[in-house]
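As a next step, we paired sequence with structure tokens, yielding the entry below.
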Amino acid sequence: MSLVIKSAEPGLRNDLQNQLLSSYTLIAGLDEVGRGPLAGPVVVAAALLDQRSLPEGLKDSKLLNAKTIESFSAVLKEVLPGYKIVAREPSEIDRLNIYQATKQAMLEALEGLPTKPQAAISDALPLPEASIPVYALVKADQTQECVMAASILAKMYRDSLMIAYDSLYPQYGFASHMGYPTARHLEALKQYGITPIHRLSYQPVLEALLFHREHLESWIQTATGIQRLNLLNRALKIKKPSSIFCEHRFLGSVLLLKKAVGL
């Protein structure tokens, strides 16, 4: 069961959560980090919450600096009755699409908790397939402490991964922008092409692959026929490439893809 709640009164910070805690003794918060980046996984966390107190000052992870996120993450891992973190890699995002990859990760995180909660609150993402009631509350990461806790755990995990990737691919600046499509990241794509952690289903990454002919030729050699066809179909949906890419190189790569799939 999944109930979508479109709004919450700003002044009643934890009203829904408190109501649920009066009905259920154990609930879970669900949140994701990394739907928008061009590189790296999408990460979901499920955080169990019972009647014990949480650290003061919890907020949505987007409103906290890196040091505070790290501090909160360490405390939450000590005080929460349980938590589960699940990552979906770029290949899965490309295969399923970001919405479905996030949804599957949420279900896996929820089912992977050490103790099964009686209900859960997600940040606006309905989960009718879940085995327990899930309340999909818009802006839950700003109003519900259990979702804030999940947000912090997911953010800490993903940021640590991207910092590690930065040491492998230092020219992209992953440690500063975490894979989001900043001007620096787009310029690096133009200059250096893509990495194994980039999402080919995202247009700037696809354009970068098409722009770097040698990378495309290498990718074609290892790709399956279905992967080649999927990439061609995505390329054909691009009506006009971004201004940072040369259109004639884009068209030449589309012709190369057509040849690779036998067209």
Observations:
- The radius of gyration is 21 Å.
- The chain has two domains: 2-165, 170-260.
